Amino acid sequence: MMTAEKMGSTHRPRPRATDYLIASKRCELRNLECFLQMGKLVLSIGNLIHHLQRERGASNVYLGSKGERFFDELGAMVSNSNQQQQTFEYELLEIQAELTSHPASISLLNSIAAALHGLDILPVLRADIRRQSVSAEIAIESYNERIRHLLAVVFEAAETVVDPAIAGMLVAMVNLMQGKEMAGQERASGSLGFSRGHFDSALSRRIAHLIDAQERSFAVFERFADEELLMLWQHHTNAEYWRDLQHLRGLACSVGRYKPLDTNLSGQWFELTTQRIDELKRIEDTLEDHFHRRCIARYTEARSALTHEEDLMDALDDAGPDQDPMRALCTGDYPGDKPDAYRSDGVGQKLGRSVFELVQQQAVRLEQLSGELRLAREALEDRRTLEKAVLLLMKRQRISDDEAHKQLRKLAMDQGRKLPEVARSVLEMTALLR
Amino acid sequence: MMTAEKMGSTHRPRPRATDYLIASKRCELRNLECFLQMGKLVLSIGNLIHHLQRERGASNVYLGSKGERFFDELGAMVSNSNQQQQTFEYELLEIQAELTSHPASISLLNSIAAALHGLDILPVLRADIRRQSVSAEIAIESYNERIRHLLAVVFEAAETVVDPAIAGMLVAMVNLMQGKEMAGQERASGSLGFSRGHFDSALSRRIAHLIDAQERSFAVFERFADEELLMLWQHHTNAEYWRDLQHLRGLACSVGRYKPLDTNLSGQWFELTTQRIDELKRIEDTLEDHFHRRCIARYTEARSALTHEEDLMDALDDAGPDQDPMRALCTGDYPGDKPDAYRSDGVGQKLGRSVFELVQQQAVRLEQLSGELRLAREALEDRRTLEKAVLLLMKRQRISDDEAHKQLRKLAMDQGRKLPEVARSVLEMTALLR
Question: Where in this chain does the entry annotate a coiled-coil region (chains A, B) (predicted)?
């Protein structure tokens, strides 16, 4: 049996604190590196979604007008969407090896699988729209589904970030994209109603719901956006076209089935909503640009911190392999958890202090990060919870998602609680009643 | 510019949904594989902690009796601890490559660095105890610190699990180990008081706090333990020695500084608490064994699911590389999101349905898992929040952790809220007031 004294001088290989410290830093670096590439993927997803949204809106003008409007426009839009899809697929291939060999998240990989699978169905959908062999409602729903899968990839990617500065920006991004998608669905639903010349009550309710949902997403975006983005945002909310847009929104929400509208309004509606959505896209692009710059800054920072620490570790190794590690780490006093506990009598002291301080620094930093990260994670979690509760109510009561949202909002209002809290209670209750 | 029709037949490489589906499954498998090895590491940590706890208790009898008791026992215990440390280091080296090349968590790696660094200080601490050149209070604190770092590794490991069945067991494990550590600290503090022959009020308060903290940890353990463990637990709480132990606990908590005790009680105290702690260790070993078996079962399951799906994918590939992927995926009707939308006219239909169903199945499964996982994660998060709030109060008010716990408990009582909620509020408030 070995005694404590013998332990220190044996030469069997032992795991070293410094190896794990360096590995921890490298892991952080790899995560940042991954997001430098992921940023490009998110950009390409944003572009693809943008064009699919436009295609969806135009398809509804086309179908709603029984093929009289937007025949040519639609062709050009499909072509643009295809180009964007190619770029998305190219970016995905670029990081495929990284994503699948150092997988960050099971859910991220599965969401990519679902998104790719969803895109494969587009050509058939487009041909059916062209032939007018599909109802506008089903066409909208099918586009919504593709876009939902693409947004889920961004959402799952945001969940894998461990750097809070970056996580906050991705939360802003996810919510901006989500709000923009609700605006896109509003454009499509309105296009259908205006080109048909009337809105039934389901369609009006749908539009009211979409307006409400946009506001909720954009509120979260505002919480996590930086100053420059907030200025752009303010500019957007004060734009001139809002007066006309609000007027048309009013018609869409209240006109009813039996009061025919001028079908030429569909052109104006498409134009105004498109102007607005294009503006949202520019804000999204700015956010994307800020995100990219932040990733580079954080990566450079982490890279040089790692180099600095690797140098320190090398210095520790150079102090001689025969030197008792105990001696280097704690040269006398043992509550070695406090740096001033090391004796100030030479090299061992200096290096011992370095290792100690680095471990502590990293622990304190990770602790701080985890606190800041929690806010970002909670915002993502709130969104997930709400979506789950809505799906659950839809399934249980066989109601639309507008109706499910409405029930949850009513519950929240009645109980004076926040929407995500109510959603959480609904899920917990159901788990109990299962 | 390409048209939609041309897109389908070009031969540029494209990312495939099936690749990501398989990657998602492989990622899940790797996580399980990692926990098969991690289980051994956790076992070795549990054993090392157990022996350090015993050494800590005996050191306090030794120091409290001014070197009169436990001289020989202590030597044997140190030797056992060293053996356990070797095993721990061996297990760590076994998975070092895996841990550092496919890093699961930055925090896990850093917690290992801190634990290793902490162990390096042990020989010096032991020499000081032997020479009686360190106070019992500082010696206890130093052992507590080493054990705290070791427990943090198990905690961080638990946070990286993605399989809810396994996550729940690790939550039970973390809380059992935490409760056992509080029992160990109770043994050490009591050993000091009984061997000195008196308890000052700080020491009595400390013991009352440790008893309370044990109960809270074990309550969480009970929530996540399986039936067999609950039976063992019931047996433990009804053991015969409790009557004597409760009597000594009563003395320790109330005797006061100026009423001398028979110092021979220290032997009885050490024996009773050790009997209890050894029993806790046996429950821990059973839990470890169940955990290992569960990991193997889940791994085997996931492995065979992956093989099954890879076979399906191969079949899809064999259907011919020249076959248009669109055709295989959706042979006509496009809201291809519903399996019954595929035409029942041949191979394409069958394979299309397979891919679709697999993506859906994995999504539904991940969704269910994430719900179950949330409960386990929340229990871990509650513990982390509480610890952070305690540390914060200790630092701000320069008080002991007993005192900090007491303040939080009082707040919770006054406000009729749960302890983790109050801890969360404290942290949020401080973030606001910073």
Answer: none
